[in-house]
Amino acid sequence: MSSAGARALLPPRQQSTSLGRRGAATAAGLALGSLADLLLADPRRGHPVAGFGQAAGALERRTWRDHRAAGVAYAAVCVGTAAAVGTAGQRLTAGRPLARTALTAAATWAVLGGTSLGRAATTMEQHLAAGDLAAARAHLPTLAGRDPRGLDEPALVRATVESVAENTSDAAVAPLFWGAVAGLPGLLAYRAANTLDAMVGYRSARHLRFGWAAARLDDVLNWLPARTTAALTVLTAPLVGASPAGAWRAWQRDGAAHPSPNAGRCEAALAGALGVRLGGRNAYGERVEERPGLGDGQPPVRGDIRRAVRLSRAVWTAAAVLATAARLARRG
Question: Which GO terms describe its biological process (predicted)?
Answer without folding.
Answer: cobalamin biosynthetic process
